[in-house]
Amino acid sequence: MANASMEEFEALLNESFEMDTPEEGSVVKGKVIAIEAGQAIIDVGYKMEGRVELKEFANPGEAPEIAVGDEVEVFLRAAENARGEAVISREMARREEAWDRLEKAYADDARVEGAIFGRVKGGFTVDLGGAVAFLPGSQVDVRPVRDAGPLMGLKQPFQILKMDRRRGNIVVSRRAILEESRAEQRAEVIGNLSEGQTVDGVVKNITEYGAFVDLGGVDGLLHVTDMAWRRVNHPSEILNIGETIKVQVIKINKETHRISLGMKQLQEDPWDLVGAKYPLGSVHKGRVTNITDYGAFVELEPGVEGLVHVSEMSWTKKNVHPGKIVSTSQEVDVMVLEIDGAKRRVSLGLKQTMRNPWEVFAETHPEGTQVEGEVKNITEFGLFIGLEGDIDGMVHLSDLSWDERGEDAIQNYRKGDVVQAVVSEVDVEKERISLSIKALGGDKFAEAVGGVKRGSVITVNVTAIEDGGIEVEYEGMKSFIRRSDLSRDRSEQRPERFSVGDKVDVRVTNVDSKTRRLGLSIKAREIAEEKEAVEQYGSSDSGASLGDILGAALKSGE
């Protein structure tokens, strides 16, 4: 019985020991019994005391709040050290307590409060009431933060992104909180906006394609094409960052929360008056705003722009880039050719404001006018001569020389030669000017044979005797009479019976303007004379001989 009582007592004793002796590695309650040398002495029960540095009772950047008699929770690291004191830590107790609290918040997706207290590589450290978390630089704000100084030490909410108790890692975000509140704010602002509404906004950012405008917590995009009715090359031409402007809400996308804004919609559309203001055929002054490969855009007034197509730029410069004819910002006179109100297009003409140079040339240079110009080009069919008014005239091969073949005559000319010619034809519609070099001294052949017709009898000079006939000259024009045409009588068809310098009467059998030759015949003259004599004096059948008839005819002619 006594043994049983002893065992019970031992068991009770052990139980009371277990109850009163805290377990190492756990959080225990203790009482501050003294504060000395920057440490708090804490009684954790069972006659165990430990020391804790006062700074462990302070939040980062704050003074410690601790007094004798305060009850605190500490972490018992060891029951006894070399000095017989308990090894305790307030910081570790706070950490354990914080981890429990943070794990619950993480599971509930709840916000936690903390303060940024240090800067580390890639971000910042945050005290979450005992546990230290990492705040990546990208998670500090919605936009990159250059100076995080003002955020240090401030108690503010964070969202836990990741946590691992075993490794002691916690990653938090301040940005997620801001985005959430921003989304709520956006939704509220967007809810109060409607399409067509006019609102005030502040220009927040300017890009090449437009500007972002803050409408009070929500941004809208004002596209460059909606800033003004006129062409705007860059938004900075008409807007400045920080400027307050009036805009109209054009479109709201409820899903993406994107807002499109416009400024020009608040101004009168100049296109409403274009038809009345710019009648077809009217000429107006405009400013060249843009030059492309296919033409130039000319602003008639702010918001009304027309295109001068490359084909309407110059009468003479056909295959030239528009930039060689006009330059940006140049003032030009243009004619309205066409208006398409639906497509908001005006077709303009530049050359129409100047007279057609071919018309002017035709008026000032009638056919037969002598001109002078430089050989611009030589082709297989003739020469191109530069004329006044920046136009060209063409001398065809056949108009180069009276005496030489065109193919031979063209060899006498080189590019850059200054030549004289006569205007032979101007075709305004086809924009063609025909010139003649051979006509410069007039047409000698035409002048020489002006009164000569087929059948005429003319007197020629013999200039050469050849085997096949004789060469003769009439008014400077050479011709050849073949042997068979020298006489009606065969025995007289001998060239040697003529001498150079002889004057001979011949009959014209052909006038060929193309080859510039006269067909001549002594034989034809004799036959014609005989025929005429017979008609006048009767036929040889009546008894009179041909000699008598001719004799009579000659006598009467004397």
- Beta strand %: 35-45%
Low-confidence stretches: none
* Main beta sheet: 5 strands, antiparallel
User: What does the average pLDDT come to?
Assistant: 78
- Separation of the first and last Cα atoms: 205 Å
Give the overall shape.
rod-shaped
Enumerate how many helices there are, as a single number.
Answer: 9
Record the strand order, biggest sheet.
Answer: 3-2-1-4-5
Features:
single chain, 558 residues, 30 strands, 9 helices, 5-stranded antiparallel sheet, alpha+beta
What can you tell me about this protein's structure?
- Pfam families: S1 (PF00575).
- The chain has helices at 2-20, 90-108, 175-191, 274-277, 357-364, 406-409, 444-448, 522-537, 546-557, and strands at 26-36, 39-45, 48-53, 71-78, 87-89, 111-120, 123-127, 132-136, 155-164, 169-173, 198-207, 210-214, 219-223, 244-253, 258-262, 283-292, 295-301, 304-309, 331-340, 345-349, 370-379, 382-387, 391-396, 418-427, 432-436, 457-466, 469-474, 477-482, 503-512, 517-521.
- With 558 residues, the chain is an alpha+beta fold.
- A five-stranded antiparallel sheet has the order 3-2-1-4-5. The chain has a five-stranded antiparallel sheet with strand order 8-7-6-9-10.
- Helix 8 packs across helix 9.
- The radius of gyration is 59 Å and the shape is rod-shaped.
